[in-house]
Design a protein that fits this description.
about 45% strand; elongated; 5-stranded antiparallel sheet; alpha+beta; 11 helices
Length: about 400
């Protein structure tokens, strides 16, 4: 341990010594193995030096023996610091106990979270982690090495390619990379591909089966697009029809777009509340008597105590309430129409699927009523038309049996 630190903990004093035998006193200190340092002679029979506080009380017989007298010039070290505190010793003790408590809290796991799982239930991962000693209120020292824990979890949890255990402060994060498991393909029965709607065909590609329509053909809902029956009436075979069929479909939409648009704007006024945080719980300290704003936006700033690489579960949080007001923005009729059409397009694509392409649109009727632009719009969209339909038994019967009642 550092010698200066040891001296500070034990305490030391600077002495001024006067007497006819100052040099003899120094020699006696050496003989008695009493450490002294920074020895300086300031005149005939006078000098000063530093000595540790426990050795200070061993000087009395030596002073008497050499006929010297001493006076204390300076006092240093922890014992004198405590003496200066007086009645504040308990405050220091409490502060030290608080810091020790924080350190102990930082050595406890408060939160266990899972990241990266899509198909594996989080409860299964947490249960496996608990069996390996990873659970809230567990001492981090008792958990063991994170790398070893990760290997054990990888062997315990099914359908994972990799598991990592990351310890940050009082939080343990279990990161999971799931193994790619080929999807089990359900056995398929012979089928046709039929149209989901009345449409005009724009593209048809048959991977399996026989296409019964061509490009620009007009079909109705339920018409067979790609047949799963191969061959003629005498030599027939059935397959699972597969392919890509797209067509133009028309959809009529009723669109309403307000001319006056409302949105939230900040006024510049704000108020804050201060909270103490322990784990995932927060205790509000200030701001109990503040009046809430009618409209507001809330921003949160949370901080935690850190001791080097360790993060304690104790911290503080400032919640700022920003006053807002509702602002009305008046748009032109054309701007309102365009906003309404954009919303209708987005809704149509979300309903029909991301591969939908809107080819054309036509406003059939338009009027303004009660601050709104009301339109009836016809959209022409190119969509995926094909859907499955099982091959019926009567479709496979010979022609003479089909005609029988």
């Amino acid at each position: 341990m550092n010698a200066q630190l040891v001296r500070y903990i034990r305490g030391y004093v600077k002495l001024y010594v006067v007497g006819p035998s100052f040099e003899r006193l120094i020699n006696r200190l050496v003989e008695e193995k009493i450490p002294a340092w920074d020895i300086r002679r300031s005149g005939e029979g006078r000098g000063e030096f530093f000595i540790a506080l426990p050795d200070y009380f061993r000087l009395k017989p030596l002073l008497k023996e050499t006929g010297c007298r001493m006076r204390t010039r300076e006092r240093h070290g922890f014992p004198f610091f405590l003496d200066k505190l007086g009645t504040r010793k308990w405050f220091v003790a409490g502060a030290a106990a608080f810091l020790v408590g924080l350190y102990l809290l930082s050595q406890v796991v408060w939160t266990v979270q899972v990241d990266g799982n899509d198909t594996i239930p989080e409860e299964h991962i947490l249960q496996a982690a608990s069996e390996q000693g990873i659970y809230p209120l567990q001492w981090k020292l008792r958990m063991g090495d994170p790398g070893v824990l990760a290997d054990r979890l990888a062997r315990t949890i099914p359908n994972v390619a990799w598991v990592g255990v990351d310890v940050q402060g009082a939080t343990v994060t279990i990161r999971v990379v799931e193994a790619t498991v080929p999807a089990k393909r359900a056995p398929q029965n012979p089928r046709h591909l039929v149209s989901t709607s009345d449409a005009v065909i724009t593209r048809i590609i048959a991977d399996k089966g026989v296409p019964l329509v061509g490009v620009h053909s007009r079909v109705k809902r339920g018409d067979i697009l790609i047949s799963g029956i191969l061959g003629d009436e005498e030599n027939r075979d059935v397959v699972v029809a597969d392919g890509d069929v797209r067509g133009l479909v028309w959809y009529e939409y009723n669109v309403q777009a307000p001319v006056v648009k409302q949105h939230q704007a900040l006024t510049g006024e704000s108020r804050s509340t201060f909270h103490l945080v322990l784990g995932e719980r927060a205790l509000q300290i200030t701001g109990y008597f503040q009046k809430p704003y009618a409209e507001e936006r809330i921003e949160t700033d949370r901080k935690q105590l850190r001791f080097g690489p360790w993060t304690a579960p104790v911290g503080w949080m400032t919640v700022t309430h920003l006053e807002a007001s509702i602002v009305e923005e008046t748009r032109t009729t054309e701007e309102a129409k365009e906003a309404g059409l954009a919303n209708a397009r987005a809704d149509l694509i979300a309903t029909l699927g991301g591969d939908t392409v809107i080819r054309a649109e036509k406003i059939l009727h338009e009027r303004t009523d009660n601050g709104k632009v009301i339109m009836t719009v016809l959209f022409e969209a190119e969509v995926d038309l094909a859907t499955e339909r099982p091959i019926l038994e009567q479709e496979l019967a010979p022609p003479d049996k089909k005609d029988r009642p």
